[in-house]
Design brief:
The protein is of the alpha+beta class. It folds into two domains: about 15-230, C8orf32 fold, CATH 3.10.620; about 245-330, Immunoglobulin-like. It has helices at about 1-20, 30-35, 45-55, 60-75, 80-90, 95-115, 120-135, 175-180, 205, 225-230, 235-240, and strands at about 75, 120, 140-145, 160-170, 170-175, 180-185, 190, 210, 235, 245, 250-255, 260-265, 275-280, 285-290, 290-295, 300-305, 310-320, 320-330. α4 runs antiparallel to α7.
């Protein structure tokens, strides 16, 4: 137990060190420049890159302006999203055929991006990389598995997502402009809703719903794909509030009647203890569960709940009014 506690402490110290790398930087100017260039054309990317970055002194500010502009000016293309999803299912057992189709489709998708400013994940990642290249910032496109309520729940399916790694001050950082820009409702509607939490996100949080094909982009976090699939379902609101679910470590938990479960999460932003709650949802109705032994140990927030009745429960961790993580509890 002592060794496990030491590992957690070291992990959180590394995580917080990453979070504070740019705490002295004020992004107001970068965000203002992105706002001033709202609606700018993609017809000439060198001019756009220059307009976004030429008056900013540091690489991270330049990247911030690029990232904010892309998230604010590019709209998620739900038709493209659904078309790609159908093709993934069609070629689920034939990855070579899917890759062949996808390579052809990318050319059409990039043309639509440049003309109509509509795209999905690969287009967002491509545009971020191109603008970074023009601003002399090293940036890579990362392909992998995005975990949502619709995909990669019980097993890794076909690769379904792309994001970026950017090198700033000789250190790599992770970001996801697609999920920063908004979210999809029931594969029918894209809602623009900027989520800053995906900007230079903490690797320990990022890996909760992003698993790269190339494991080096885990950025020193040790996680195998079975652990990724078994972990709780984490939502964009966890990034907004900057919280990392710690326990239970798995989404599907089996316990006996009258047993209690220890819940815990790491708060990277500030103490959220007064806004913490646990709920269950049944037949569309939400019920607040009783939690106790609620405490904050240097940003590690812990509490308990006893399950007194048999059944199968969808249980959700909430911060304020937002669901940030989901567990399924089988009480026997």
């Amino acid at each position: 137990m002592k060794n496990i506690f030491l590992f957690l402490v070291l992990t959180f110290n590394i995580c917080n060190a990453q979070l504070s790398d740019f705490k002295t930087i004020d992004f107001v100017k970068a965000d203002s420049i992105a706002k001033i260039n709202e609606g700018a054309s993609l017809a000439n990317l060198p001019i756009l890159a220059q307009s976004l970055t030429q008056k900013l002194p540091t690489q991270v500010e330049k990247f911030r302006a690029i990232y904010t502009w892309v998230c604010s000016n590019i709209t998620g293309d739900i038709n493209q999203h659904n078309k790609i999803s159908r093709k993934r299912k069609k070629f689920q057992s034939d990855s070579l055929s899917y890759l062949k189709w996808n390579n052809k489709h990318k050319k059409i998708a990039f043309k639509k991006l440049l003309k109509h400013k509509k795209t999905m994940c690969t287009g967002y990642a491509y545009l971020i990389k191109e603008l970074c290249f023009l601003a002399n910032i090293e940036c890579e496109i990362i392909d992998g598995y995005g975990r949502t309520v619709y995909s990669n729940i019980e097993s890794l399916e076909l690769i379904n997502h792309s994001w970026n790694a950017v090198k700033l001050n000789n250190k790599w950082y992770l970001c996801d402009a697609t999920w920063s820009s908004g979210y999809v409702i029931e594969n029918a509607l894209f809602v623009k809703d900027y989520n800053e939490g995906y900007f230079l996100a903490e690797p320990l949080l990022f890996v909760k719903n992003h698993y790269p094909v190339n494991k080096k982009w885990l950025l020193n976090e040790t996680l195998i794909n079975t652990e990724f699939i078994a972990s709780p379902l984490v939502y964009g609101e966890a990034f907004k509030h900057e919280i990392i679910p710690i326990s239970p470590e798995i989404m599907n938990v089996a316990i006996n009647k009258n047993s209690e479960i220890n819940f815990s999460f790491k708060s990277l932003k500030k103490s959220l203890i007064s806004k913490t709650s646990l709920v269950k949802i049944s037949n569309g109705n939400e019920k607040l569960l009783t939690i106790y032994h609620l405490k904050n140990k240097n940003g590690l927030i812990e509490f308990k709940h006893k399950f007194k009745h048999k059944g199968f429960f969808d249980v959700h961790l909430k911060i304020d009014k937002d669901i940030v993580a989901t567990y399924t509890i089988n009480v026997m």
